[in-house]
Structures are given as C-alpha cells and as structure tokens.
Amino acid sequence: MAGERSLKTGAPKKSRGKRKKPRPGKGAGHALGIAIFVVSCAAALMIVYFALLVDKVEVQGCHTVSAESVLNASGIRAGQHMFLLDESGARAAILSDPYVESMELVREFPDTVILRVVERTARAIIADPSGDSVLIDGKGAVLRIGAQTDDALMLVYGMGNAGYTLGQSIDTGTDFQATSLVSILGAVDAAGLTGEVLSVNMANALSIELSLRSGYLVKLGQPDSLSDKLFNLSAVLKELKAEGKTGGVIYLAARGGPVYSPEETPETAVPQDTPDPGTTPDPDASPSPGESPEPSPTEGFSG
Length: 303
Hints:
elongated, ten-stranded mixed sheet, single chain, Ubiquitin-like (UB roll)
C-alpha cells in the first residue's frame, strides 16, 4: 500500500571481525633471538674468563729470602684464574718461612698477581755455649737456631736457648729475661744506638750490662725507664767523644742521670831480656819488696 513502510523485525546482525592469521615463522624467529642472546652471553663470559687468567706473578720485597722460594711456596702459577686463587693457602705457606713477617697478595687486573713480602731483619744472636745459638730480629722472633756468627749483630749472653721456636717470638710474656731483652732491643733502636751496642749481658736481669763498640761498659741496671736511659746514653756518648775520651764505665742505673767513670788502662808489659842460664842474676836488680807502684787517680763526672 502507498505510504506504508516496510518494517524489518528481528535483532540486527552483528558484524564479525576478521581473525588475524599468524605470520608464518614468527615463533621460530623468537626462538632464534633467544639462542643468539644465550650464545652471545656465553661467548662474553668465555672472553672474560680467559682474559682474567693469570699471566704474570711478581714477588716484591725480598732481600734475604729468595723470590723463587716465595713463588714456589705460594703455589700460584700462570693459567690459574684471578678469582680462583688459594690466597689463604699461599699466605700460610709463605709465612712458614721464619724470615717472612707478612705477605700481601695484590691482583692487578686483568692478568697480574703481585706477592708483596715484608721480611724480618736479624738483630741479635743469643749466644749459647753448646753452639746452638739463636738468631732473632728486633721483635724477638726466632729466625734460626744453630751455630752462627755475625760481627754486625749484637751478642746476648746469660740466656739459654730452651723452648724457642722458629718464627715465634721469644717474648711469650712469661720469661722476664726474654721480655726484658726485647724491650732493650726496641729502646736501643729508638735511641739510634743500633750499631753502637756490641753485646748485652743478661745473666742478672736486675743488673744488665751493655758493651759498646767504642769501648765503654754501660751499667744499665734494671730494665726500667729504658727509653729515658738510652736517650741519655746517646747524649753522654756524644759528649764523651767530643772530649776525646774512650773507654770507661757509664752508669745508667744511678738516680739523677748517667754517671761516667774513666777506666784505668793497664800499661803494655815490655818483655824483659831472657837471662843467660849460665849466669847468676844480679840481686841488686830485684825491686825492693817494700816498694809498690802508686795507683793512678780516678776521675769521674756525672751528667
């Protein structure tokens, strides 16, 4: 009919979207990218690993101990990895040498290892009549036991050699003589008298004596106030040498400062002619028994 509209009934049809089809080879490309990444990382790690292999080992600080012995004891060789070194084992092995006081392992990347050694320096010999003398450093560490001589070192008398161990200090805190000796060594060095003291007599630890290379005998007394006593000794020696005096006794145990007493120097005996066995000696040539030589006067001063 004219004017009539045709009405369509029913739900409108939904428009259906088109499904995207996966591109061919996308999954394979993703897997390939992961594989390339893994291989690249592995290659980088391999490069880093081989770049950090030890190529050179240096030993520094050796004077008495040979660098070769330190290197052999460390166990560190070219080809080992910088981060896989047995540092504690190397340190223990190197420090087993009594002449080595300390060791530091330094890594210089990418391929160099430095072993820095601090040695002990021989300072004195504890002389023993049996021949088993003990060589020690300035801190009392035992460097060697056995027969030995060294004119440049201080000789120590009046002490035994029992109970000492290589690499260990004689000063265990229980031996008064050993503790006193270590303190004396330190005070002598601090006063600048290292090369001046020839020997020390520790037989009586409360009346210690030092013999100097310049000919003086020093009565140190008890091992107390050692720094003050030995600095005073250094000053007195300069004064005596300036005055041209040699030999004598310096008392450091006296209160009020050191005291010097010159020592009488005995005259050198002149050998007499041997009498002819066939002749009788002249009785007038014999000295009168009532006469005796007059002693030389003794002078001294205190400082």
